[in-house]
TrEMBL record:
This is Ribulose-phosphate 3-epimerase. One of its GO terms (cellular component) is cytoplasm. The active site is at 34 (proton acceptor), 174 (proton donor). Catalyzes the reversible epimerization of D-ribulose 5-phosphate to D-xylulose 5-phosphate. It catalyses: D-ribulose 5-phosphate = D-xylulose 5-phosphate. Binds 1 divalent metal cation per subunit. Keywords: Carbohydrate metabolism, Cobalt, Isomerase, Manganese, Metal-binding, Zinc.
């Protein structure tokens, strides 16, 4: 069964604590927090203060996805804010190894993220040092986009590299995930599913999380 990481990008910000408690009690494993800078992606969302505010109200694994240019400058603030996992986009820095090392040295799990247009070969040099790889299944920047099926081959490729080299990183998927699109990803080796609009735009978010879990039993 896949682990579920609801993305609060699609939650109700005015009732954020209520929404977080709902998914936490409903069996979510992670809480996915999308940080956007208006440069790497067109939108702006929230920063380290937001993570810091959420930390005391939830025991969920805080899974912070940085869609920001030159993330290394912001890493100390997100580490201090209480993130459990921090993901950096390989396309956003000239120094991916250094960025991942800063995260690990801060005692936080390190994740590398690849866009749909980025090949797995671009991250093979760092696969031995990461705790999680995030394969974007849409182009980052917005919730509610359509899943790109051509990304599934990259999940399978990563899964094969994982086995061949004895790595034990999680493989996370993000974008357009629902109870149907998750199936091929899970079969290809995905272990964590981010879901934003599918979960939070529903009248019963917990039922949607369960649908993802049931589809990957
Ligand atoms: C997109 C973000 C996602 C987003 C997913 O740039 O990284 O985490 O919240 O939203 P859905 O699940 O609606 O595609
Ligand atoms: Zn995300």
């Amino acid at each position: 069964m896949i682990k579920v990481a609801p993305s609060i990008l699609s939650a109700d910000y005015v009732n954020l604590q209520r929404d977080i408690e709902k998914v936490e009690q409903g069996g979510a494993e992670y809480l996915h927090i999308d940080v956007m800078d208006g440069t790497f992606v067109p939108s702006i969302s929230y920063g380290p203060g937001f993570v810091k505010a959420i930390r005391p109200i939830s025991k969920l694994v805080l899974d912070v996805h940085l869609m920001v240019q030159q993330p290394e400058h912001l890493l100390p603030d997100f580490i201090e804010a209480g993130a459990d996992i921090i993901g950096v986009q390989v396309e956003a820095t000239a120094h991916i190894h250094r960025a991942l090392q800063i995260i690990k040295n801060g005692g936080v799990k390190a994740e590398v993220v690849i866009n749909p247009g980025t090949p797995v070969s671009q991250i093979t040099p760092v696969l031995g040092m990461v705790d999680q790889v995030l394969v974007m299944t849409v182009n980052p920047g917005f919730g509610g986009q359509k899943f790109l099926p051509e990304t599934v081959a990259k999940i399978a490729e990563l899964s094969q590299l994982k086995q061949a080299n004895g790595y034990n990183f999680d493989i996370e998927i993000d974008g357009g995930v629902n109870n149907e699109t998750v199936v091929a990803c899970y079969k290809a080796g995905a272990t964590v599913a981010v879901a934003g609009s599918y979960v939070f735009n529903a009248t019963d978010p917990v039922a949607k999380m369960n649908a993802i879990k049931t589809a990957t039993k």
